[in-house]
Automatic annotation (TrEMBL):
Domain Alcohol dehydrogenase-like N-terminal: start-end pairs: 38-128
Keywords from the UniProt entry: Oxidoreductase
PANTHER family: NADPH-DEPENDENT ALKENAL/ONE OXIDOREDUCTASE, CHLOROPLASTIC, NADPH-DEPENDENT ALKENAL_ONE OXIDOREDUCTASE, CHLOROPLASTIC
Matching InterPro entries: ADH-like_N, AOR-like, GroES-like_sf
Domain of life: Eukaryota
Signal peptide: none
GO molecular function: oxidoreductase activity, acting on the CH-CH group of donors, NAD or NADP as acceptor
The keyword Transferase belongs to this UniProt entry's keyword annotation: no
Species in which this protein is naturally found: Decorospora gaudefroyi
Name of the protein in question: Alcohol dehydrogenase-like N-terminal domain-containing protein
Short name of any one Pfam family annotated for the protein: ADH_N
Gene3D superfamilies: Medium-chain alcohol dehydrogenases, catalytic domain
Length: 136
């Protein structure tokens, strides 16, 4: 996935009301999320897992608990784009590092943040560094 020609917009599947995914999802253009805490990481999403938990949240969590439009789903893989200044060096993360992780339920439920988008911001503790190549 890549950003639009403006460089600061992304595509994301969003919803503004509760319901079944085929009934409520819309492909939208949104600003690329920004790092707001020193331990966060901006990830360019390459893959997103669709799971029953995401669908249940989409169907049952009322919008008076959530921001709108909401981006669904929590599990993703991708590459690091940028890091907050407080990401521990022992994590050995830098732009281009392959990672996989999850948007924590607390973050997902309280904000518009989700993995069904071109970019996602999560705390560095929510990701694992991916391995390239075949297993030994």
């Amino acid at each position: 996935m890549s950003t639009s020609s403006t460089g600061n917009a992304m595509k994301a599947w969003t919803h503004t009301c509760s319901g079944l995914p085929p009934d409520v999802l819309t492909l939208s253009s949104l600003p690329v999320p920004t790092i707001t805490a020193p331990t966060q990481i901006l990830i360019q999403v390459s893959h997103c897992a669709l799971n029953p938990g995401g669908s249940i949240i989409m169907q049952l969590l009322p919008f008076f608990f959530r921001a709108s439009p909401a981006i669904p789903e929590m599990d993703f893989s991708g590459t690091v784009v940028s890091l907050g200044s407080g990401v521990p060096r022992d994590r050995k993360l830098e732009p281009g590092t392959p990672v996989f992780g999850t948007v924590p339920v607390s973050q997902h439920a309280k904000s518009t943040s989700g993995a069904l988008a071109e970019y996602v911001v999560v705390d560095n503790t929510a990701i694992v560094v991916g391995r390239q190549g075949s297993p030994e």
